[in-house]
Specification:
Elements lengths: L2 E4 L3 E7 L2 H6 L7 E3 L2 H8 L4 E7 L1 H11 L4 E4 L6 H12 L3 E2 L11 E7 L5 E6 L13 H5 L3 E5 L7 H12 L3 E4 L3 H6 L1 H11 L2 E5 H7 L5 H11 L2 E5 L5 E5 L2 E5 L13 H14 L4 H15 L8
Parallel strand pairs: 1-5, 1-9, 2-7, 3-8, 5-6, 9-10, 10-11, 11-12
Antiparallel strand pairs: 2-4, 7-8, 12-13, 13-14
Helix pairs in contact: 3-11, 11-12
């Protein structure tokens, strides 16, 4: 197996809204907020659902890698309920092997409400459900050891069971990569994320906002110097400023594609990571890997939803 993803097994529920909806519900545009089941139902009450699809950040990346012809697998936690069954069907359809036992849980399968405003920005309200209850028993050593690289998401990291699952996966993996996922996650777990990036991960994916928050800076050149000091591979997406990969003293930049008909920014980072990891595991150069990531992220933002 080329890449094993470990992440939140979340069903995406996509709705189009106006900016007033965000103001009315005290939501911050372009961020992710954790909600409970009651709050999720309350938000959904007056919304029209555009699309329901198997999601989760790393799962989206893994599907992208599968579509590029890579042998991939995924570990996540779902309930044996209707949404859980739909989730598995979505992965199997994309030729992704699901490496966990599905059984009846006390908590429902996780759901992410993706709210798309007219400017194509997405704001997420996530009910983690049983996805957030992943623990070290859910991580099969043999499966991790058989993959070239294990890809994790910052969204999943939390103290307790998820932290133990993370640490076990990183220790057992041949190489490990992680996406910082969201500014909310970085600010919530800054100390732990900094330790992961500096000492445990081989590859880190972040956007400009996330990595600058992680190291408490407002100057991007300090991000480059920080990345060089780690000696690891750090890949940063910068919106219209393109992307950059830093490894030791090698710094490679890639321009963003122009003249795109942007419909929805959901999944841009997930598909960028898929394209870059495709290059990484298939021995592309850093430039070629950045270009593949840019190609996939450019495609996904011209449609609604996070899967091509």
């Amino acid at each position: 197996m080329k890449v094993l993803g470990i992440g939140n097994a979340i069903v995406d529920v996509i709705c189009k809204i106006d900016d007033n909806f965000l103001l009315k519900n005290k939501l911050t545009k372009s961020t992710m907020k954790l909600v409970d089941e009651y709050e999720l139902k309350k938000l959904l009450k007056n919304l029209k659902i555009e699309k329901t699809i198997s999601g989760g950040s790393v799962a989206n990346s893994i599907v992208g890698l599968s579509q590029l012809g890579n042998s991939v697998g995924f570990i996540g936690k779902v309930n044996n309920d209707d949404l859980g069954k739909k989730y598995l069907e979505g992965l199997l359809k994309e030729k992704v092997k699901f490496h966990n036992n599905v059984k009846s849980e006390k908590i429902p399968t996780g759901t992410c409400l993706i709210l798309i405003t007219p400017d194509s920005e997405r704001t997420m309200c996530t009910f983690l459900g049983t996805a957030g209850k992943i623990n070290e028993q859910d991580i099969d050593d043999k499966i991790v050891e058989k993959s070239e690289i294990t890809f994790l998401e910052g969204y999943l990291w939390d103290q307790g069971g998820p932290q133990k699952a993370f640490n076990k996966a990183i220790i057992k993996s041949n190489k490990s990569a992680m996406s910082l996922s969201d500014l909310f996650c970085v600010e919530r777990h800054k100390k732990f994320f900094l330790d992961l990036v500096q000492n445990k991960l081989n590859v880190t994916f972040a956007n400009e906002q996330e990595i600058m928050s992680l190291i408490n800076t407002k100057k991007f050149n300090e991000v480059i110097e920080f990345a060089k000091r780690t000696g690891k591979l750090i890949v940063v997406t910068r919106g219209e400023n393109g992307s950059i990969a830093i490894q030791h003293d090698e710094v490679v930049e890639c321009a963003a594609k122009g003249n795109l008909n942007i419909k929805d920014l959901t999944g841009a980072g997930d598909l960028f990571a898929a394209g870059f990891l495709h290059g990484f595991v298939n021995k592309f150069s850093l430039r070629e890997s950045l270009e593949k990531g840019t190609e996939l992220s450019s495609k996904i933002i011209q449609q609604v939803g996070a899967r091509l």
